[in-house]
Amino acid sequence: MRSFASQYPEGTVGVVLVDPLDPAEWTPMTEEQTRTIAHGIALSRRGAWAARMGVVRMCLGLLMAGNRMLPRIAAKAWSGRASVVTDRIAGQAQKMPKETWPLVAAHWKQPKCFEGMARHFECLADSIAEMRDVPALRVPVTLLVGTQNEHPAEPAEHATRVSPHTKLIHAKNSGHWIQLDEPELIVAAVREMIGSRR
Asked: pTM for the full model?
């Protein structure tokens, strides 16, 4: 989004960034970050395999029927130490309105969901390198950051790198999933951005 807004400012009203990755935190990439990306790729590939074999479909069906134990055991077997991550994702997904759960489950049952995640991780290093050279934006920017993240970055420095005129909003009751914890902040930021350009 930042790259597009930088190249086509005349076609961009403004940018609302919701808990975005800060390329400066990943430049240069550390060995630990490289391992994290490799682990994400491997986990996503295993997820695609589990989806093809019907394991994901079965676990999601059980989970939606109220059985949490068997899906948790399957997730631990599938992801090993990363089961903490899968537990966290499942916990966040439960914040969504119940009527959306079948839609989320239909998406996660597909191998292409996990293959897409693997491709995202594979391109992450190149995307970060590309963002290193993107100049500060010349369009209005609002940056929302969750204050309950495990390893919070310095949001003011990140905001300044995006644009010297970035409006920074702290989501006090959110971690990385601001769209689930405090969606009203995002809606208000988008409305304000559109309203200011009319």
From this structure: 0.79
